[in-house]
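About this split. The held-out portion is used to measure sequence recovery: a designer receives only the structure tokens and must propose an amino acid at every position. Recovery is the fraction of positions where the proposal matches the reference. Here is one held-out target exactly as it appears in the evaluation file.
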């Protein structure tokens, strides 16, 4: 979920902070028709000279989320063995990475799932065909240090002593690498999600002080082969009290991704400021014959 805040009058901003319910290291947990399994914890890793699959059995232990250190063409494999609950069988399974640096190469049960270059954005893959609910699964992820983002190779053999390698790399296109260029690995949680065939892919919140309204931009994903009729509801909460209910929508969602904006006037919202950092939460529910998906948000402070 994402939030767009617009600064406005009355010395503040209408702020909505939305975080999915979830604790690192928690067992599989159901949220309506959605089941989430957090794979954070003790993994295995090995440094290698190249990411040739399959890796050897020279594994060492590492904690995920976590980092390895290196900046001069370092590569590593990360390995996790897990058993999804049998209740996940027959649903759409998504493998979600909160952040992995860099150029992740993902294999599940020996099958190549996909890759992702950038190191700071979340990304996910559909692993419905490769995952085995109720059985042992092996997840292997290969990553490379910041050099994975270079458009051409850089020879560091002539790097002067005490010079920052970031200043040494010239005339090379790089993806954003951030301040800690010397750290790489699975630095954010890795999760397995079980969702219905029609599920919530993204929620983008657009509160407006000027127009005194809230717009929720939903991206829905239909992994089925035919269009599905769904009912969409959005409710804003102040603590346990409903503060705003947006109009419900009956939509027909074709296969693939569909985006829709849902708006409602909000004239009595509690304004946010640094003197009074008041926050709301949002609950979005999508129900269809394929099941129900709900992203429940929690308020972190008020």
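Reference sequence for scoring:
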């Amino acid at each position: 979920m994402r939030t767009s805040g617009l600064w406005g009058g009355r010395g503040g901003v209408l702020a909505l902070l939305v975080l999915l319910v979830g604790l690192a290291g928690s067992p599989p947990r159901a949220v309506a028709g959605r089941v989430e399994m957090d794979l954070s914890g003790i993994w295995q890793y090995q440094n290698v000279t190249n990411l040739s699959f399959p890796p050897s059995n020279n594994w060492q232990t590492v904690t995920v989320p976590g980092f390895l250190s290196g900046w001069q063409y370092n590569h590593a494999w990360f390995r996790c063995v897990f058993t999804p609950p049998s209740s996940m069988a027959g649903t759409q399974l998504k493998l979600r990475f909160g952040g992995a640096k860099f150029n992740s190469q993902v294999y599940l049960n020996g099958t190549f799932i996909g890759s992702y270059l950038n190191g700071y954005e979340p990304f996910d893959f559909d692993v419905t065909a490769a995952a085995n609910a109720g059985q042992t699964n092996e997840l292997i992820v290969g990553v490379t240090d910041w050099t994975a983002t270079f458009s051409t190779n850089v020879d560091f053999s002539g790097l002067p002593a005490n010079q920052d390698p970031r200043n040494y790399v010239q005339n090379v296109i790089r993806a954003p690498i951030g301040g800690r260029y010397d750290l790489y690995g699975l630095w954010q949680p890795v999760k397995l999600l079980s969702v219905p065939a029609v599920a919530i892919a993204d929620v983008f919140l657009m509160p407006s002080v000027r127009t005194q309204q809230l717009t929720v931009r939903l991206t829905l994903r239909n992994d089925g082969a035919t269009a599905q009729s769904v009912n969409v509801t959005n409710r804003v909460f102040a603590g346990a009290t409903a503060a705003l209910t947006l109009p419900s929508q009956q939509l027909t969602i074709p296969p693939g991704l569909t985006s829709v904006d849902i708006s409602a006037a909000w004239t009595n919202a509690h304004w946010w400021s640094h003197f009074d950092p008041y926050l709301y939460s949002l609950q979005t529910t999508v129900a269809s014959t394929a099941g129900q998906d709900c992203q429940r948000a929690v308020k972190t402070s008020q």
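Annotator remark: Residues 5-26 have pLDDT under 50 and may be disordered.
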